[in-house]
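Researcher: Can you fold this with cytidine-5'-diphosphate in place?
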Amino acid sequence: RYRDPTAAEKMNPFAEQEAWEEHQIGKATLKYGSKNKKQMSDDYQFVFEDQIDFIKASVMDGENIVDEESTKLLEKSVAKSALEKLQEDRKTLPIYPYREELLKAIDDHQVLVIVGETGSGKTTQIPQYLHEAGYTKRGKIGCTQPRRVAAMSVAARVSQEMGVKLGHEVGYSIRFEDCTSEKTVLKYMTDGMLLREFLGEPDLASYSVVMVDEAHERTLSTDILFGLVKDISRFRPDLKLLISSATLDAEKFSDYFDSAPIFKIPGRRYPVEIHYTKAPEADYLDAAIVTVLQIHVTQEAGDILVFFTGQEEIETAEEILKHRTRGLGTKIAELIICPIYANLPTELQAKIFEPTPEGARKVVLATNIAETSLTIDGIKYVIDPGFCKMKSYNPRTGMESLLVAPISKASANQRAGRSGRTGPGKCFRLYTAYNYYNDLEDNTVPEIQRTNLANVVLTLKSLGIHDLLNFDFMDPPPSEALLKALELLFALSALNKLGELTKVGRRMAEFPLDPMLSKMIVASDKFKCSDEIISIAAMLSVGNSIFYRPKDKQVHADNARLNFHTGNVGDHIALLKVYSSWKETNYSTQWCYENYIQVWSMKRARDVRDQLEGLLERVEIELTSEPNDLDAIKKAITSGFFPHSARLQKNGSYRTVKHPQTVHIHPSSGLSQVLPRWVVYHELVLTTKEYMRQATELKPEWLVEIAPHYYQLKDVEECTLSLSLSLCACV
Ligand code: CDP
Ligand code: MG
């Protein structure tokens, strides 16, 4: 409840109704779960039936509450031409008054840590200031982002502000997509891409400034970059290094970079009211939807931002919200639903930044990406279910898994802060105050301490860094995890016994993919099916956004999907079939619609595939095709993924072969009803159970044939006699 009904409302059974009318004519009104439900139109009753109770717990004290001046400045700039307006807008950002001071500090120091609240203008402004001050005459300015969507959207914004075409002076580079040219002087890129640039340019000679942005996110690539840029800054005194972060504990960064000075941009923030639920919510997705609707019909104008854990959840929420608002009738203002997640096609991403039309309300359904990397203006309400998707890694078993986990207090506060940027805000936490204070960790554990390091180790080895245990990590990974990575790379034949890069390893490092995928591609040479394998790799890289399943057409969608699984070929081959069929139709969009396939995912897969084809040439692998020899294709897959093999148990679950653990075939898999005796899988996801996503049937003797150093006969025994015989033959 936001407040109790007034006496007048209690007296007048139609008060609620009138309140709705008021709402409609634009007067903000509050609305409650009410005893007068009966009088209301059936249309919106549901909103109150599953009303969620919140309690207002505290008001976050705005450290620097905004003065009216900046608001006026904003208003003044409305009637200008677009470019002029953008220029005026730049001057209203919190960072603007500190422009000269900042430039001076950068001039005076080689390494500078910059701290400022999200939205203060660090990412969009600092590279422009440096450009205006002439730094780009000496070399590019590179600015890293942990997320691809952020790199793209920030570059787009900056190119607008500078009035240039995206990809010319301002560009971005993310995996499988390079939107830069010779002209590019401001280059936004993912941290992973800068890491890869070290492979071609170990001293980053073409850069005058490197800004490691969003440093507080502490992604794996950012952490590795820290070590590398710190190292090169010693022999490149002309290279400026900026470490920018949205959180206040910058001392750690400063300490790491030999006591680099910290430049703090005073933030502006309006107060944010925090509301907690009275009791824990069993279903946060549903609770979030109910809360969106509650806000929409009861709270004054202002956009809503909801944090979800991933694309699937966002799509579900989007569908339910569309469905439910349809029932609201014309009395309620329009609710514009804007999803945003990493795999969303670029055209749709721009939608979240479009100003909300008068009289309507926007609800942004976002992943963690909106926590600090993206600032969306106009957000007044934040709904925080308190979860995010996290990678977790068990260095003992070498198993990596994606799971939905509670966020940290630091994250919760960042999320809440998103609502108080342009006016006083409200944050609705879908968990209790007790949860917040007692259950949430203070900070998120850096990724380097909870992930598989094989990829990074391969990159570092390619850079000639051998002594990994003594690498200058800000927070070292568990040594077990490092050893596990070395072990895996050895098993994949990327490293030899001495831990040195092999020819296979060198080839693998050329691919911007996880080592197992790279190995699968390199191995496809031997099985003469590189053509098919790069299609599969491309489809796997696109993620789980190939098929869609609209709520009202689930049966049709499932049937369409099962068509590709004819013959129980397994998920990898099914993906290949999807790709080949699409190619046969000359990449038809219509065909995608008919088969419930996302056309933009396919286009992305095609781009990725094109690039992989280019890389094949670079590592001198011929493009060869064995479309009908499914075993050859499966063997190539197994060559990369043999550590991910599992055997069927009597109860229908599976057990991984090397480090026994119970896993299950994901319900979305074409093999979920087939349950072959042996499978090789792409990845594990932990939801209600530990699921294998993308599985393919495997012959156990392949394991011994392909990875004799990894699997012994005893690992795959209990096979049929004929099998043992064939094994004897091959041993
Ligand atoms: O990096 P930081 O969080 O300090 O701020 P920023 O990303 O540079 O954002 C500064 C301003 O640019 C904010 O008002 C954003 O709303 C705006 N912006 C935008 O309109 N579109 C983008 N794609 C990125 C930023
Ligand atoms: Mg930023």
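Model: Folded with cytidine-5'-diphosphate in place. The first strand starts at residue 54 and ends at 60.
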